[in-house]
Amino acid sequence: xxxxxxxxxxxxxxxxxxxxxxxxxxxxxxxxxxxxxxxxxxxxxxxxxxxxxxxxxxxxxxxxxxxxxxxxxxxxxxxxxxxxxxxxxxxxxxxxxxxxxxxxxxxxxxxxxxxxxxxxxxxxxxxxxxxxxxxxxxxxxxxxxxxxxxxxxxxxxxxxxxxxxxxxxxxxxxxxxxxxxxxxxxxxxxxxxxxxxxxxxxxxxxxxxxxxxxxxxxxxxxxxxxxxxxxxxxxxxxxxxxxxxxxxxxxxxxxxxxxxxxxxxxxxxxxxxxxxxxxxxxxxxxxxxxxxxxxxxxxxxxxxxxxxxxxxxxxxxxxxxxxxxxxxxxxx
Length: 332
Prior knowledge:
Helix 7 (229-237) links the parallel strand 13 and strand 14. Helices cover 25% and strands 26% of the residues. The protein has two domains: 2-142 and 299-331, Medium-chain alcohol dehydrogenases, catalytic domain (Quinone Oxidoreductase, Chain A, domain 1, Alpha-Beta Complex), CATH 3.90.180.10; 147-273, 3-Layer(aba) Sandwich (Rossmann fold). It has ten helices and 17 strands. It is globular, with a radius of gyration of 20 Å.
């Protein structure tokens, strides 16, 4: 099969690799389409924690089960699935307490194991979510990012009747805006790229702006989907007393900003981090299948595998919204 392989930081190749074979607990998924995430860019750049190079990136995908190991149950050949890319051990203290996304021995597809920018990928059968009939394979790649946002909303708690500011109008920011508005929050949305704000109202935003100062206010809840320390600093400055700020965006290593711990204490702020998926994958699939989110606005026509470098560069530059790569032909 053909795959996009990051052989080392900055070194991407489209090449032939052996087809995967399932271990006892695994299934083989023929990948249909894979979304490009900021994490994939960090993997290419070499600034995303522990990555086992060479690695096939990609973790936002759907496909069809084509083979199964002898211990993989409930997944017949031909089953359409989305796949939770998290790898957790189910045995460490964090997993046993329910925090599988904080696994002490964890990893994931596209970072520590081969990912989905390939014709086929071997995955843990227990991480597969069969797709509802109303959810197409082309949309299945959004299950993972939506599951991440659902986890963040769970971490934040109730927002009914509260003023909410979302920083960043990429796919994560727009999905967060929609879920928080559906939860009763009065959502405002900020992104320095005005073209990304055009979809804001469809995702529940009442006001949009290219800078926080344009909206001239303070908010009970602030959600950062940029990973940009300057944006986080802006959000922290406009969080009301006893307010909450959630950090979803991924920043590169060593990036920081100065803040006064006294200010956090004086305003009694709650700062929440939200990392990946935690028991939200099935909920995300069902929510997408219900058709209540205008996800068709996120998707651009998928690019071929040979254009993976272009897809990663589009994501790096924030061009468009959700860039995707079509893999169906790569299995040949």
